[in-house]
Amino acid sequence: MELLSLFYLGSFLFFLFIIWKHFDEKRHQQCYILEYQCYKPTDDRKLSTEFSGDIIKRTKNLGLNEYKFFLKAAVSSGIGEETYGPRIMFAGREESPTLDDGISEMDEFFHDSIQKLFDKSGFSPPEIDILVVNVSMLASIPSLSARIINHYKLRPDIKVFNLTGMGCSASLISIDVVSRVFKSYKNVNALVITSESLSPNWYSGNDRSMILSNCLFRSGGCAILLTNNTTLKNRAMFKLKTLVRTHHGAKDESYSCCYQTEDDKGYMGFHLGKNLPKAATRAFVDNLREIAPKILPTRELLQFLIVTTVKKLKRNGKQGRGVKTSAVNFKTGVDHFCIHTGGKAVIDGIGVSLGLEKYDLEPARMTLHRFGNTSASSLWYVLAYMEAKKRLKKGGRVLMISFGAGFKCNSCLWEVVRDLEDANVWEDCIQRYPPESLSNPFLEKYGWIQQEDIATFKLPE
């Protein structure tokens, strides 16, 4: 009898141990952001309207039609006069970049933002267990991650991931890599570095599908410190709730809508195809279809299902005209929308698709105006704007949405762990935002080009 009692007791204790182990493992698989630091280049790298015009004028392969296209793109871009470019532009060597130009551009960002991140967080380099670096259009040997390890003397057993060619959506891919590693290791810290090297990537040809990238992309970057150490969760800024990645690379139309290539004259550039909006919409819809059930309340999903079913029934009965489909209201599960600053059209398109208001789109629009499209790091400038405006309160839910070549759409939901109000890179200008107008002076300064005739046009000295 005693043996039987011991058996039952042992079985019960083992059962409790299994339950405890399961919840303990889940507890240590959480992903928290402890700190992040966006990069603000020095003021001598600001691209004013006048200087941008000088760069365009010295591009030898452009004619009047290309100048008119540049003007139209610049005026409608949503970009202001305080964005930043690489130093090679100011040296007048954008058409003949060297490997060192790209590497030195990245080193300047690394040494500034990573050091500031360590200073703000109180962490030291030996405390980093995982390093993920994503810079899509620059690959060097040794890798950029190796340069960071060498400069900061990181540990020899650090787990390293160096991502290239992942496009503007790469920072969420990096977060996904970290969150997956967190599932296998307890109490570890990760450093994610996201940026883009523009020095080797100025397009000097006259193909309009490749000129557009010159108008949108600007210098930037961000360093992010993450952990799954539960003893640090009270210091955390954000907790990752879910992350969804959608990749349409198997579709030829999506795969070929944006890619790095040479034009027919051999000039390297980044092609943005006419089918890009269609490919982006497909990826966006598929991504929303997967993430919506994970972030929205059941009542919202049921309401949408009922309305959709009714419409289908009415349509089958040829009575569909009187019934309107109600789109899913993402605001029932999301408080803030952190949208990739791919361009004014991208931001406006997402706003229409999700039924967002001016307030919801303000962070992305202001980020595009102040910093431009900084590729994969742009999301973090948008997040920093929200924080600088003191919008991020404990319990708030932030949806990040990004797009990238491939074609990809990645999104994730963060929960704000504590009230946040650090101004980050917006500290010296947040009081000026939003401005009364986002119009830039390109049309005022260069609008005369629209009246020129191709037969008599001559570029003024």
TrEMBL record:
Chain coiled-coil ranges: none
Residues in Beta-ketoacyl-[acyl-carrier-protein] synthase III C-terminal domain copies: 334-415
InterPro entries found in the cross-reference section: 3-ktacl-CoA_syn, ACP_syn_III_C, FAE1_typ3_polyketide_synth, Thiolase-like
Residue numbers annotated as active site: C168, H247, H336, H340, H369, N373
GO molecular function: fatty acid elongase activity
Catalysed reactions, as listed in the record: a very-long-chain acyl-CoA + malonyl-CoA + H(+) = a very-long-chain 3-oxoacyl-CoA + CO2 + CoA
Pfam families: ACP_syn_III_C, FAE1_CUT1_RppA
Record-level GO cellular component terms: membrane
UniProt GO BP: fatty acid biosynthetic process
Pathway: Lipid metabolism; fatty acid biosynthesis
Broad class of enzyme this protein falls into: transferase
Domain FAE residues, every copy: 25-312
Enzyme Commission code(s) on record: 2.3.1.-
Keywords assigned by UniProt, alphabetized: Acyltransferase, Membrane, Transferase, Transmembrane, Transmembrane helix
Segments passing through the bilayer: 6-23
Organism superkingdom: Eukaryota
Family per record: Belongs to the thiolase-like superfamily. Chalcone/stilbene synthases family.
Name listed for the protein in its UniProt record: 3-ketoacyl-CoA synthase
